[in-house]
Amino acid sequence: MGKREKAPSTYAASILDWRAKQIDDPVKRLKFLREASARAAGIERNLPRHRKIALSGAAVLAAGLIGVLVMPRLSSMMRKPDDQVLAAARLDAGRMTAAADRVPDVWLVEKKDQYEVYSNGLRIESVGAVNEAPRRFLPLDRKHPETWKKSAARTNYQTTPVGIVYHTTESDVLPFEREQNNNLKRLADNVLSYVRNIRAYHYLVDRFGRVHRVVAEESIANHAGWSVWADRESVYVNLNQSFLAISFEAQTRPHDGSETINAAQIHAARVLTDMLRNKYKIRGENCTTHAQVSVNPDNWLIGAHTDWSTNFPYEEMGLPVNYATPIPAITIFGFSYDPVYVKVSEARLWRGLLLADDEIRQQAGARNLKPALYKALLNQRYRETVEALALK
Fold it and tell me: Is the pTM of this model over 0.85?
């Protein structure tokens, strides 16, 4: 019989124990563990029954860690987590890779000026969609960064999108109730008009589950700005050019404590994602969230934007859980993160951060360099890459 996988609660206990080990003072360490348990108990008591069922060790861990992350630069000061924690995180990353290339078959059934209908039930409202500059980008060979400067001289730019970035509008939301129907429609129309004016996304999924085309797929949308992602072969810098954008009319953390998005939005986004993945042969590993790709070159921190830093329904969308992916901006270009980023995230995303930190340590060790110096060299690689590609 093979070795059994650890339950989520066991994984959370392991990572919580790892976090406690960062505290040298035994009194403070004990206080941390007691407060973590108290917060978790408080959260569970205040949840409705259906939310309690879903409360895993990851949520318990989140409750404890958020209150104690007060270091000025967490990623540069953390001690190495134990092998048990890293093994669990790598297991999640392995599940992600295994599911990465399963793409459903979807085809266009009917196309009119006002809408399109697809074989999986997807309907796209296309009235008012705009065209912008055509996309053109150069994927960078992940295994050979020494070629990146020369790549900029190539003329065979790629024009087919290779991935999807998921966003939230972070606009005002009202209770999703029958009595609010007219107000909900008004807000949806206002949000659609706004994002269309600024060419913010390719698609908007409103709170009724309607899919609106905002910017044509072959055009650039202004959705990602300074950003980094990578798959097994290629690295992508500034994803406006290379990735499509799907945004939900929603807040990542609704102020009233309600769910981020509703069932209609999840269904609509899934059939939309299936269509786009089939049409452009997009890998599951290249379907990711804005919080995972956003970077700030001024302070070398990831998470300049934090929409979908938590709660993105990867499984419900038929996608691998990319929160377990080591963040490419860290491992490839040496970016860091701070307590603010950790505070708005949750345990599944922290696994990707832990793996990224561990990868940096291993890469630095293989070169007989301290991690801080190695990250500085990776920062320089980013500067040179951006300059060579003439990215703005």
Answer: no
